# Entry
Amino acid sequence: MQSSPTLYRIGRVLLASLFLISGLLKITAFSGVVGYMSSIGVPFASLAVPLTILVEVGGGLAIMTGWNARPAALIVALFTVGATLAAHRFWEADPANMQNQLNNFLKNVSIIGALLMLAAVTPEPKK
# Structure
């Protein structure tokens, strides 16, 4: 369904880079991420962080390389829904942080949309 395989590949790499880099940074700051996730109420944060890293790094690499990109995009989209609802509760934010949380919430909604579009398109033909 894609009309430009080159733009499709570039878009896939750019979209995936967010998750890949984020996952790699979580590895380098593991205990801090566990503490942050605990502070925002994520249950079993010490288990949630490795799962988050797996989804972000594994899903990011799959999307970036095109290997099982469609199912990976769906998994990462579902993950992003959960992460957005857990971390960007703008409706609970104090007035000083409400706009920032709303912006991050809406950014993630847009990313979820891009992931769903990626999951919907026909994969590139094998060469």
